[in-house]
Amino acid sequence: MKKSVYIYNFSEQREKAIKLALMPLGIAGIRVEKESYKKPLGVLCKIKGFDSPDKDFTDFDEEMLLLCGCGSSDIDGIIRALKKCGIGRVALKAILTDTNIFWSSSELYEAVKADHEEMAKNRS
User: Fold this and answer.
1) pLDDT score for 66
2) How far is CA 55 from the centre of its chain?
3) I need a surface site. Which of 23, 41, 93, 124 has the fewest CB within 10 A?
4) In the chain, how long is the greatest CA-to-CA distance?
5) Confidence of residue 103 (pLDDT cuts 50, 70, 90)
């Protein structure tokens, strides 16, 4: 699987900054259009041999990143690159897993948002 970061709902300027920050890391930055929210993440991330039908979806507007094919050192590098290029901390981010590979982008968003809210509540 090719290392890539799927980019949801960032402004054109912020998206461009992310893509430029990822370039030296050899990681592709790919915009996810709203019509692709219904695709299972395995299809979206072009997992070889993965085939699953489209799913129902709901729209969302918050920024989110999905990291595909990235190991822990890649993730650390991505986080550093985003800070360095001025993007800063992205609250909603996820890694493609054996569990979420079947989810739609909307299902991923709901799960990541709930996790983020729970962590924020626990910090308070």
Assistant:
1) 98
2) 18
3) 124
4) 44
5) very high
pTM of the model: 0.93
Number of C-alpha atoms within 13 angstroms, CB side, residue 86? 6
> Which helix (H) or strand (E) segment is 51 a member of?
none
pLDDT at site 23: 96
3-class SS at 67?
A: strand
Q: Do 95 and 75 meet the contact criterion of CB atoms below 8 Å apart?
A: yes
Measure the CA dihedral 28/24/15/92, to 10°.
80
Q: What is the mean pLDDT of residues 68-86?
A: 94
Q: Please state, in angstroms and rounded to a whole number, the distance separating the CA atoms of residues 10 and 27.
A: 18
Please check the confidence at residue 57 and state whether its pLDDT lies above 90: no
Is the separation of the CB atoms in 54 and 121 below 8 Å?
no
